Structures are given as C-alpha cells and as structure tokens.
From TrEMBL:
<dbReference type="InterPro" id="IPR000631">
    <property type="entry name" value="CARKD"/>
</dbReference>
<feature type="binding site">
    <location>
        <position position="248"/>
    </location>
    <ligand>
        <name>(6S)-NADPHX</name>
    </ligand>
</feature>
<dbReference type="Pfam" id="PF01256">
    <property type="entry name" value="Carb_kinase"/>
</dbReference>
<dbReference type="InterPro" id="IPR030677">
    <property type="entry name" value="Nnr"/>
</dbReference>
<dbReference type="GO" id="GO:0052855">
    <property type="term" value="F:ADP-dependent NAD(P)H-hydrate dehydratase activity"/>
</dbReference>
<keyword id="KW-0521">NADP</keyword>
<comment type="similarity">
    <text>Belongs to the NnrE/AIBP family.</text>
</comment>
<feature type="binding site">
    <location>
        <begin position="58"/>
        <end position="62"/>
    </location>
    <ligand>
        <name>(6S)-NADPHX</name>
    </ligand>
</feature>
<keyword id="KW-0418">Kinase</keyword>
<dbReference type="InterPro" id="IPR017953">
    <property type="entry name" value="Carbohydrate_kinase_pred_CS"/>
</dbReference>
<keyword id="KW-0067">ATP-binding</keyword>
<keyword id="KW-0413">Isomerase</keyword>
<feature type="binding site">
    <location>
        <position position="152"/>
    </location>
    <ligand>
        <name>K(+)</name>
    </ligand>
</feature>
<keyword id="KW-0630">Potassium</keyword>
<keyword id="KW-0547">Nucleotide-binding</keyword>
<dbReference type="GO" id="GO:0110051">
    <property type="term" value="P:metabolite repair"/>
</dbReference>
<keyword id="KW-0511">Multifunctional enzyme</keyword>
C-alpha cells in the first residue's frame, strides 16, 4: 500500500528531514534517483541528447544536478533556463562543471532531443504553466519526456489542470506520491510513475489516502476455509435489472457470481433473464427484502426510476445489511438522500461524474475533496468512477485506484463493478475496503479483457475470475 501525501505534509516532512542531514543531501538523493531513471530510459547514455527545462526553483535544481550526473557519463546535455537569474546556483555550477551547456529557451532547442527533463516547476507551482513555458511544453510532446517530481502545470495537491501542462511519459517523484499524480487530469499527464526513496518515510505522518497494490488486495480477498459453507461465504441480495434493462441485472448478477458470493438471491424484475442465464441464482421475485437472509445487497443497475423501483430500493435500504447502490439507484437517492443518510448499516455509492452531480456538489477539479465531502455528507462510502477511481469513507479515509484501462468506458462495465463490490461486501469486507478492492479487481479484469481487442462489458465480466486468480497469485 502506498501513501499519498499533500504538498504541506511533504514540505513539513522535508524540512524536518533536512534539519537532520548535511546541506544539499536531500536534493542529491533526489537528483541521483532521477538521473539513474533517465539513464535507464535512455539505454546507451554516451552521446545521447538530453534537454533540460529549468525553472526558478528547486525543481530546476534537481534537473540541473541530474543533468550534471548524465553529462559526466557522456550525455550531451543542454539546459534551457526559463529564469536565468533565478536558476539554482549550485545546480547550475555543477551542470556547467560537468560539461553541460545552456541555450536560449526556444522550442527549436528541443529538436532531436532523445529525452526532455521537465524541471520547470514542482510542488511549488501555482496556477497553470506560465505563458513563456507553454511553447516549450508543447515542443516536448515530440520527445520522451520525464517530469521531475510533478509534470509542470499540474496542481500537485489535486490533479487539477488549468490550461497547458507538460505531458510526461514518466514522472520521477520524490519521497511520496502526491494526489496530483494519481487523480484526475494530473494522473493522465504524469504518465508512468517512479518513486525515488529520499528517506522521507522517517518524517512523514500516516497517510489518509492510499493506493492499493496487488499484495494488499490479495491479502483482503476472501478465500473459503474448511469450515465454510455457502451461507458463511456470504449471501448477496440483488435488486438490479428490469424488463426494459434486463442486461444490467444479468451483468451485475454474473459479476457477483464470479466475484465469489456463496449464494445470490435475486429480487429484481428481470427474473426470466436471470433464470435463463444463471441456474445457480435463487430467484425470489416479489419477495420482501427484509424477509430474506442475506449478508449484503446490491441495488440499482437497470432497475429503472419509477415508483416501483423507488419502493424496491427503499425496501432494500431499510434492511440492516450493507448495500451497494449504483446507476438508477443513485438517481433515486439523488431525489431521496434520506434513504442513505438515515441508514445504520454501511452504504457504498458508485457514481460516475454525471451521477455524482445528482447526489452531491461537483465533482470539482479536486476530485478527492469532492468525494470526501460527499461521503461525509451522505454518511456513505462514495466511489467516483473515472480514469483514476477515487473512494472515500465517511471518516475521511480515501483510496485511489490505479488499475484499469480507458477500454473500461463501455456500456455495462459499471454493472460489473457494482456486482463485484456486492460479493465482497457479502463476504464480510468492511464497506470502503470492499469498494477499493472491487475497483482494483475490476481494473485488472478490464486490462485482461482488453488484451483480446476492444472488450465489451461481458468480456470484462468473464475476466473477473482470471483477474482474481492473477491477483491471488501475486
Ligand atoms: N526541499 C528539498 O530539499 C527538496 C526539494 N525537492 C525539489 O524541490 C521542488 C520544490 O521546489 P521549490 O519549493 O523551489 O518550488 P518549485 O521549484 O516547484 O517552484 C518554485 C518556483 O517556480 C515558480 N513558479 C511557480 N508557479 C509557476 C508556474 N505555474 N509556472 C512557472 N513557474 C512557476 C515560482 O516563482 C518559484 O520561483 C520539489 O518539487 C522537488 O523537485 C527535491 O529536490 C527533494 C528535496
Ligand atoms: N478513461 C477511463 N479510464 C479508465 N477507466 C474508465 C475510463 N472511463 C470509464 N472507466 C471505467 O469504466 C467503468 C464505467 O462505469 P459506468 O460509467 O458506470 O458504466 P455503465 O453505466 O455503462 O455500466 C467504471 O469502472 C470507470 O471507472
Ligand atoms: K516538473
């Protein structure tokens, strides 16, 4: 599990660490890690052409020291100083002493670069890129671009972007992940992430936002023991699908089966489709949710938004079991938020951006803050889908999911996600962990499904079991 830390936390931790170390030690660690990563990307370094974009602060200093390291190994390094009077003096001296040269900061100077190092601005950046940096950022798009700490122009605290930014292929970040590298547009602009250890763990506080890795998820995945049976493994009630949208019910139910629920009791109005597809499902059409023995519920996908759907959702949410609410269920919650707020049992809401706007303000450019506020307000776990799905619990804990692929943006893929989270809830995972684990597995399933060409949501559903196997194997 990797912690995600805001800029204030990082600055405080850096200052505390710096006070214990010789001057310049921290920057030397950062720059060396950065240079090694660049060398790895370049392959043969001797004779390679590297162009540094150097801003006014320590971010430019990192780039210059890394440039010096590379120049000493035969790289032809050129620094474009955006603020020549303010360029990091020690870094510039080291760079020049190693044979690095400087040139006018024009787009032409980037032509033919094997690698561009973006040291324009790091965690000290405010607002979008300044005008003079924009043509350089644009010219860098033709080359392999490595961002120093943060792609310049991205808000390191939120991932929000105003105007142009550097588009990095790789971001080499120091000490800890920042929210802006893993959430929203910033996550897109950061490319692949490499974290350089500069010893900051010693002074950083515990993180309230985390990114799960495969081992974290593997440790949480339910596995039946010798004493388990279908009931103890978790029974899930499903209220999804309708005569108009049977497919959503089929996808959601199928995903819950593949996710490992011990038994499924189906109470939606697409009973014939469910019977035809899944002989293992116990169809209890018309049963009152409160009369059924289940450990959790999933409600909403394709159930419609008419009065009958409202009544069914209300009956599900009146039970004392944890529940996932998705799609049409979220629309219904938008007009009756009390259905969720008044519950004692945990609820997981899984909106995309459009659905989010029906139950909360936003989402704003600061997606983590929007989701945390919604979770607090609705007293529910909120999972906001997107290229980096964000999950928050009412107590403020949050997770960002890094698995997945844009190919998951296909009709019905959300139904697969909610069924999967339902099966994990039924197995007894704490609601926010069920949401975070479900998002991780769904993302891996999407990646596996996409290997065979553009996947449908049915392909994603079929990839859930292989995804679980792959994650379980580590
Ligand atoms: N404190 C330390 O010892 C360490 C700092 N590190 C580096 O230092 C960076 C932070 O350095 P600074 O605090 O000097 O801040 P930055 O270098 O991120 O930026 C500050 C400078 O950029 C200018 N600036 C702000 N917004 C801008 C924008 N939108 N466009 C163009 N210029 C803009 C400001 O006028 C200021 O001079 C980190 O991101 C990291 O790269 C690392 O070397 C690790 C150790
Ligand atoms: N650009 C993207 N990159 C990665 N994942 C995406 C992207 N767009 C959508 N997804 C994922 O695809 C799924 C789509 O869910 P949703 O919008 O509810 O679809 P539907 O309503 O059709 O079932 C979510 O898990 C979301 O995170
Ligand atoms: K940068």
């Amino acid at each position: 599990m990797r912690g995600v830390h805001g800029v204030d936390e990082i600055r405080t931790a850096e200052n505390e660490l710096m006070a214990r170390l010789p001057e310049g030690a921290l920057m030397a660690r950062a720059a060396t890690g950065l240079a090694v990563e660049c060398a790895r990307l370049l392959g043969p370094v001797y004779g390679a052409r590297v162009v540094l974009l150097v801003g006014a602060g320590n971010n430019g200093g990192d780039a210059l020291y890394a440039g010096a390291w590379l120049a000493r190994r035969g790289v032809r390094a050129t620094a474009l100083l955006l603020a020549p009077d303010k360029a990091h003096p020690g870094g510039l001296a080291a760079f020049r002493a190693a044979g690095g040269r400087t040139a006018d900061p024009t787009p032409a100077a980037l032509a033919g670069a094997d690698l561009v190092l973006d040291g324009i601005v790091g965690i000290g950046g405010t607002g979008g890129l300044r005008d003079e940096a924009v043509p350089l950022a644009q010219a860098a798009r033709d080359a392999l671009t490595v961002a120093v700490d943060v792609p310049s122009g991205v808000d390191a605290d939120t991932g929000a972007v105003e105007g142009e930014t550097v588009h990095a292929d790789v971001t080499v970040t120091f000490g800890a992940l920042k929210p802006g590298l893993v959430v929203g547009t910033g996550a897109e602009r950061a490319g692949e992430l490499r974290l350089v250890d500069i010893g900051l763990a010693a002074t950083l506080p515990a993180a309230s936002t985390h990114v799960f890795e495969a081992a974290d998820v593997a440790a949480l995945l339910p596995t039946p023991g010798a004493a388990d049976n279908k009931y103890t493994r978790g029974v899930l009630g499903v209220a999804a699908g309708s005569s108009a949208y049977p497919g959503a019910g089929v996808l959601c139910t199928g995903s819950a089966i593949n996710g490992g629920a011990g038994m499924i009791r189906y109470v939606g109005t697409a009973a014939d489709a469910i019977r035809a597809q899944y002989p293992e499902v116990v169809v209890q059409e018309g049963a009152a949710p409160d009369d059924l023995h289940v450990q959790a519920w999933v409600a909403g996908p394709g159930m419609g938004t008419d009065d009958a759907a409202h009544d069914l959702l209300a009956a599900v949410l009146a039970t004392g079991e944890p529940a996932v609410v998705d799609a049409d269920g979220i629309t219904l919650v938008g007009s009756s938020p009390g259905l969720v707020r008044d519950r004692d049992a945990p609820t997981v809401l899984t909106p995309h951006d459009g659905e989010f706007a029906r139950i909360a303000d936003g989402p704003s450019g600061d997606r983590l803050a929007s989701v945390r506020a919604a979770a607090r307000d609705l007293d529910a776990v909120v999972l906001l889908k997107g290229n980096a799905t964000v999950i928050a619990a009412p107590d403020g804990r949050a997770w960002v999911n890094r698995t997945g692929t844009p190919w998951l943006g296909t009709a019905g893929s959300g139904d697969v996600l909610s069924g999967l989270i339902g099966s994990l809830l039924a197995a007894g995972l704490e609601a926010p962990l069920a949401a975070a684990v479900g998002a991780y597995v769904h993302g891996v399933a999407g990646q596996l499904a996409a290997q065979g060409g553009p996947p449908s949501s049915l392909d994603v559903l079929h990839a859930v079991r292989p995804a679980l196997r792959e994650i379980g194997r580590g």
